[in-house]
Description:
alpha+beta, Heat Shock Protein 90, 3 domains, 7 helices, 13% strand
Amino acid sequence: MRPLDxxxxxxxxxxxxxxxxxxxxxxxMVVAAGLGVQLRWGVVGAVxxxxxxxxxxSRGLTAPLREMAHAAEAMARGxxxxxxEVRGRDEVGRLAEAFNAMSTELETTDRVRxxxxxxxxxxxxxxLAGLQAALENDLDGIQPLDAQALNAQxxxxxxxxxxxxxxxxxxxxxxxLHVVDIDAEALLRRVREEALLAAxxxxxxxxxxxxxxxxxxxDADRIHQVLAxxxxxxxxxxxxxxxxxxxxxxxxxxxxxxxxxxxPGIPVADRERVFERFHxxxxxxxxxxxxxxxxxxxxxxxxxxxxxxAESAGARGCRMVVELPA
Length: 326
């Protein structure tokens, strides 16, 4: 670290540079006079020496600015993730910290964009390939069209497009929340009834709410969407003849909604990543999901000012928890 890097003000640094230039000039003229050098040559020598001292000192002050200029040029060429060294605590140092934060955010955004394009292409390719194969087999007289299979592929495409549009609106804050009082037990019962319509025959869904009832403040449709997605995931991974529990309870300053299953659970390393777009566990890759449901759920919970997380449900299983402000 250079001596001036310890000073937390660029104004004070510049003042010290000016003072140093003045002192060097005065000292040079005094030395020149003592050596009998003519006044005009002494002044010229003092000015040149002062300029050299200022150049040496100020080079350290402007080094971060030069680095940021070079990094900005590299980022303009598409080389994201450029970082500069933070040399001090003054305004230039804080600017360097802000530049590094911006560069990191741009790199993350660019990575997410590339992953989004690749994942959307992958998710669209599978049902489109199935539709193409079915149509070609029908045209070649190999196998007649299976209306049920075609409908399943078209529905999968429709769900993906709807989820992408929904996520886009949520990220753009384009979805207004219609906040109302919601009866927790009635909400959980509606989620249970809808889930059982598409669930396997062996599915068991239980509801747990406080004896005196519980009220929730939020957008009923959006919270229903979150719980429906969590319940669908729980049923998909629950054990055969297992049980899924929908629960609600008061935490004083918050209301907790949870969906618990007795499936294989989520590894600790993936409990945060499951809420990223298109992230799916290896065990879930054959289920046909696009990996967008939990990302949408997190956006909805964030819009309500709440939190969502994945926990372990004892020795086996997963517990998805949604906390909403009371």
